[in-house]
Amino acid sequence: MRRIVVVCLALGLLPVMAAGGEPVDTRPELSLGRSAEYDYDPPVPGTYRLPVIELAGDGDVLTADGKRVHLRDVVAGQVSVLSFVYTRCADPRACPMATGALYEIQQISRKDATLAENLRLVTFSFDPEHDTPTVMKEYGEMLRPGGKGCEWMFLTTGSARELQPILEEYGQRVDRKRNANDPMGPFYHVVRVYLVDAQGRIRNIYSYGMLDPRMLLADVRTLILEAAAAGG
Questions:
Q1: Average pLDDT of the chain?
Q2: 167, 194 in Cβ contact below 8 A?
Q3: Which of 10, 62, 132, 213 has the lowest CB atom count within 10 Å?
Q4: Residue 181: which residues within 8 A CB-CB, separation 6 or more?
Q5: Helix, strand, coil percentages in the chain from 3-state DSSP, rounded to 5
Q6: Which pLDDT score is estimated for 9?
């Protein structure tokens, strides 16, 4: 997992500028810079629009404290980034990559009050047999010590029966492997991370190869600006 580069500014100097010409103190994610995977400069938030794809799916889910809630209530009310994972996944191109992107976003939000106040991260397990609320709570505590920055919720379901309709609504494909002891984990699945606006509408879907925290945050900031302009 890449470490976030901390930009130190000397007193009295002009702000350090990112490659795209924007000050990194207003968009701290730009300090990550380009990489071999993401060799581009992300767009300026608010200079483009994200279409409404569809209403976010719903279903009964369990929080890390075991409280039963509706998924649509979780992702509505503020901009949310929702990732489907399972904690036993060891494939570096799958769940660890998606969780790593959310981790970097959460770390960046600790430096940015706008993100901390207007963004929610949601990690949702599709392995309820193993990923109980207790497991998800421990997983969350490992990833988010200290409680600073934006909210990060960790969810599961009470059973596979409750889970399946949710996966179908989101188009999240999950198949059990024949080899239950596969060291990479017992499931095949497509990496999908969803951007949901404050009205509970899906505005973007990211797959493997698109999980650049800089791009995700450009989209998040665009939705925050959109809501502010609409008086939300």
A1: 89
A2: no
A3: 10
A4: none
A5: 30, 20, 50
A6: 21
| Closest CA relative to residue 32, chosen from 8, 4, 73 | 4
149, amino acid identity: G
**Edge-to-edge strands, sheet with 193-196:** 54-55, 201-206, 193-196, 79-85, 119-125, 151-155
**Residue-level pLDDT at 145:** 73
Burial class (CB within 10 angstroms; exposed 0-12, middle 13-18, buried 19+) of 104:
buried
Q: What's the token pair of residue 167?
A: 């996966």
The token pair that represents 228 in the structure block: 């502010």
Specify which residues 174 forms β-bridges with: 189
Low-confidence ranges of the chain (pLDDT < 70): 1-25, 232
Backbone φ, ψ for residue 195 (5° rounding): -100, 120
96 with 142: CB under 8 angstroms?
Answer: no
Residue by residue, DSSP assigns 151-185 as EEEEEB-S-HHHHHHHHHHHT--EEE-S-TT-TT-
pLDDT at 232: 61
DSSP secondary structure, 37-69, as one string: S--SPPPPTTSS-----EEPP--EEE-TT--EE
Distance CA 202, CA 94 (A): 21
